[in-house]
Design goal:
By secondary structure, this protein is α/β, with parallel strands linked by helices. It has 19 helices and 14 strands. The termini are far apart. The protein binds uridine-5'-diphosphate-xylopyranose (UDX).
Length: 446
């Protein structure tokens, strides 16, 4: 089979991992974005964000000539390729509903380019978009601008992406499933052939469905994972009211039930990142607009809103008033192995601590430069975990970085003014720490 030529519009996590994944398997890929700086980095073989394994394959693909970054120029990349993945951002509007401006502009540009093109071209929406978007917004824009008919003159698919930050590139190469929503059979077959060739002997289950079902699968998956997290956080909050109860043991035992499974049952200060908060909000807004009030998802979001503030409540229970108290924060990124602080749970925690008059010193192995753009000089920044603990009245563990696991009770007792540790991610063994200091852990009965 002759490999189709591919273009990718939008080179964020999803777009770039898709582009590099395909290029690394010998496809010829054009990666297109309006951000000149990003494209210039990509063409030098440097990923614009930190993601394990991506750098090597990116620079290899650029050197081999399989991948090329292009600024703007949608018409050129459509002309020179057979399939286009659209992976532009879909941010939230202030009311939580999805902002489709980048999708709309990509669809208009692709439509204009299709008008000039004679051969069959398939557009694949990879961005997370609410159900109905590809059918009711993308398709009409493509048809209007191209003056052609979808399913006859050109093809259209919706193909959600399930990668996680921190393992994004590996997730692209080893998917659990491929979901293909297709407007017409030919488009779906074209994309299915591409994936079968891409994964060859390791092709995961491929689900063929409608455009809207494909869109909903992505939201349902993320909402389910977010629900698991808010559920276990609810159980953690109940555990705290029961002497001797421990959410970690509850979660381990629950996870052994095959119907429940062990993953995404780590109680903590809530979920953050660029997907779960935004996608749960967008699904709620979409559902309400359609006339159904998804109460369960409202609760999932509500739990996630109050959960981080528990760290502040614990601090107050230990210290009384926070005015003038020194609080050490370990971990700023929304999860370990990333410098991303989008919707990081530490943001509401620090804001509340500052509101109550506390002095905050923070440390994170990689997210400090991003934190400085958020908090500026409202907080202090330490250059190591131990320096962060110096003279602190209380320490809150917000992100479970591997390097924090090495901290011993003595590291806290020797450096802090008062050794009060609040373990918001259940990193430390309560038996070891409880005897040496005031130790409060989330989900642990008092
Ligand atoms: C998520 C989905 O996993 C991925 O499939 C989708 O494509 C994008 O959104 P990501 O945002 O990269 O990926 O991070 P993930 O590892 O899923 O964690 C999200 C948040 O949930 C983090 O803040 C993490 O700390 C929190 N979390 C995760 C928990 O609090 N407990 C858990 O058990 C698991």
């Amino acid at each position: 089979m002759k490999k189709p030529r591919i273009s990718v519009i939008g080179v964020g996590y999803v777009g770039l991992c898709t582009a590099v994944g395909l290029a690394s398997k010998g496809y010829s890929v054009l990666a297109c974005d309006v951000d000149e700086q990003k494209i210039s980095k990509i063409n030098q073989g440097i990923p614009p964000f930190h993601e394990p394994g991506l750098q090597e394959k990116l620079s290899e693909s650029i050197k081999k000539g399989n991948l090329k970054g292009v600024v703007g120029q949608t018409d050129q990349v459509i002309e020179e390729t057979d399939l286009t993945f659209v992976a532009v951002g879909t941010p939230s509007k202030p009311d939580g509903s999805i902002d489709l401006k980048y999708i709309e502009s990509a669809a208009c540009n692709i439509g204009k380019a299709l008008k000039q093109k004679d051969s069959y071209h398939v557009t694949i929406i990879k961005s997370t978009v609410v159900p109905g978007t590809t059918q009711n917004i993308v398709k009409p824009l493509l048809e209007k601008e191209s003056k052609k008919t979808c399913g006859v003159d050109f093809g259209l698919c919706m193909n959600p992406e399930f990668l996680r930050q921190g393992s994004a590139f590996q997730d692209t190469l080893n998917a659990d499933r491929v979901v293909i929503g297709a407007y017409d059979k030919q488009s779906g077959d074209t994309l299915e052939d591409l994936y079968k060739d891409f994964y060859s002997a390791h092709t995961p289950p491929i689900i063929r469905t409608t455009l809207s079902t494909a869109e909903l699968i992505k939201y349902a998956s993320n909402a389910m994972l977010a629900t698991k997290i808010s559920f276990i956080n609810t159980i953690a909050n109940i555990c705290e009211q029961i002497p001797g109860a421990d959410v970690k043991v509850v979660a381990t035992a629950m996870g052994l039930d095959k119907r429940i499974g062990p993953l995404f049952l780590d109680a903590g200060l809530g979920y953050g990142g660029s997907c779960f908060p935004k996608d749960v909000k967008a699904l709620i807004a979409c559902s309400k607009k359609l006339g159904y009030d998804p109460e369960l998802l409202d609760s999932v979001e509500q739990v996630n809103k109050t959960q981080p503030l528990k760290a502040v409540k614990f601090c107050k229970e230990q210290l009384g008033k926070l005015e003038g108290k020194n609080i050490a924060i370990l971990g700023l990124a929304f999860k370990p192995d990333t410098d991303d602080m989008r919707e990081a749970r530490v943001i509401p925690i620090i804001n509340q601590l500052l509101k109550e008059g506390a002095n905050v010193t923070a440390y994170d192995p990689v997210a400090m430069p991003i934190a400085k753009t958020i908090f500026d000089n409202k907080i202090s920044y330490a250059t190591s975990a131990l320096k962060c603990l110096k003279n602190a009245d209380s320490c809150i563990i917000v992100t479970e970085w591997e390097e924090f696991k090495k901290l011993t009770p003595e590291d806290f007792t020797k450096n802090m003014k008062q050794p009060i540790l609040i373990d918001g991610r259940r990193m430390f063994n309560p038996e070891t720490f409880k005897t040496k200091m005031q130790f409060v852990a989330l989900g642990l009965g008092k």
